[in-house]
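=== Given protein ===
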Amino acid sequence: MITGYYLHHLDPVLIQFTEKLAIRWYGLAYVLSFVLAFLLLRQLVRKGYSELKEDQVADFITFSALFGVMLGGRLGYMLLYDFDRFIHAPWIFFYFLNGGMASHGGILGLVMFTWFYAWRNKISWLGVGDNLVVVAPIGLFLVRIANFINGELYGRVTSVAWAMKFPGEMYEMAPARLQQILAKTGMSHPEMVIVANREGNEQVQAVLQEFLQPRHPSQFYEAGLEGLLLFSILLMVRLRWKNLYHGILTGLFFILYAVFRIGAENFREPDAALILGLPRGQFYSLFMVLIGCAFMIAGFKNKRSNRPEPESSKRTS
């Protein structure tokens, strides 16, 4: 039996300026996501895969990030995962630095923002969404990697060879077991143990190896499925069928994301109370399948596609 499982000891802070000011991997993942999304979407626009104009891309990504991803993701977390606390103290919505974002909320936030943007600019809402969903998995991938660096959203207990131990488990374990860890390390709080582990304290690491349970690194599973695989499929479809009916790609995104999320949730430790016996990630994803089907039906019904470039405007060689 394997006993030397990898003990997570990564620091979520990349650069610390002051006690309260720092660059964190989680925030950097979002920034890098928006930059890469802008670069890829601009290329798609240049090649005629969108009704957007090139000079609109920067503003579109910026406002999508702010009003769709950030506000939608934060509000989604408050409503879906922390509703009781939110309803009694609504101002905690603005405590962004304390963490708390929901991918389902971010996705639905983007749906609402793109509808408004398309209506305001008199372009196809479904067409705008089709290109946005192609670049969105880049962000899903990077944020899941940041989740791993943070040591959060870890998986269920397992004995597979690639299992890992996450010190964050201390916040969830039985009080008696936690007290054993604190007593053996001579520390008074789990955060002190976590910091000592990051700093390479061998005594602390030995105690954690003894008491922590090996778990699936489910962050990597989600990064691979919801990020890399979903991105590869959508990009391939986008490039292969330029004049695909608007809404088909958006529908495909919702369906595949839901399927991959439901599958990955089987390996992830539930981070909130179950709903009808299902982890919340799985439960909410069931509705995304229905939303995806609705987008596909709308696409085949409307039969609108990217308008081909007029012959007179094409460059001659």
